[in-house]
Amino acid sequence: MADAKWYVVHTYSGYENKVKANIEKTIENRKLQDEIIEVAVPVQDVVEIKNGARKQVQKKQFPGYVLVHMVMNDTTWYVVRNTRGVTGFVGPGSKPVPLTEEEMLPLLGGGEKIEVSFQVGDLVTAISGVWEGTIGKVTSVNESKQTVTINVDMFGRETPVDIGFIDIKKL
């Protein structure tokens, strides 16, 4: 839809997924699929280390917020605003402010992807950033985050460090 824009909705903390489900249910019940296109709770993959065990989990990027792609009119505003768990739209007063396309690209995983030929075991050097000049062996490649993990010798121990694709080159 040409008129549809992304809006940020403030929710009670911890209610993001419930709000998403409630809005989607209301869309279905009121047949608003043409006006409220998508509801999203942006998440990111994070590695947690608890009691020495590494575990990959998904964490909400913006706790307390939900993104809604919709055509703003009185009906859609009312439906979203009066969903259980929603405290309001982000914007001055009662006027929601839509996000720009540039703001949305990184949130939904869009944007420019860099194709690389790095593989686990390759030697690379950092060409910019904090680790500039550091040489390390690639231990993992994360295409979605556009990063590689290399082991760096720090205080006599090998420490894994994530570096963006644009900040390294293959040796």
Would you give an account of this structure?
The chain is an alpha+beta fold. It has two domains: 5-107, 2-Layer Sandwich (Alpha-Beta Plaits); 123-170, SH3 type barrels, CATH 2.30.30. Helices cover 18% and strands 40% of the residues. It contains three helices and eleven strands. It has helices at residues 16-30, 74-81, 101-107, and strands at residues 5-11, 36-40, 43-50, 53-60, 65-70, 86-89, 123-126, 135-142, 147-154, 157-164, 168-170. The strands form three sheets. Strands 10-9-8-7-11 form a five-stranded antiparallel β-sheet, with no helix packed on it. Strands 2-5-1-6 form a four-stranded antiparallel β-sheet, covered by helices on one side. Strand 9 (147-154) and strand 10 (157-164) form a beta hairpin. The chain starts with a strand and ends with a strand. 18% of the residues are buried. The model has no long low-confidence stretch (mean pLDDT 84).
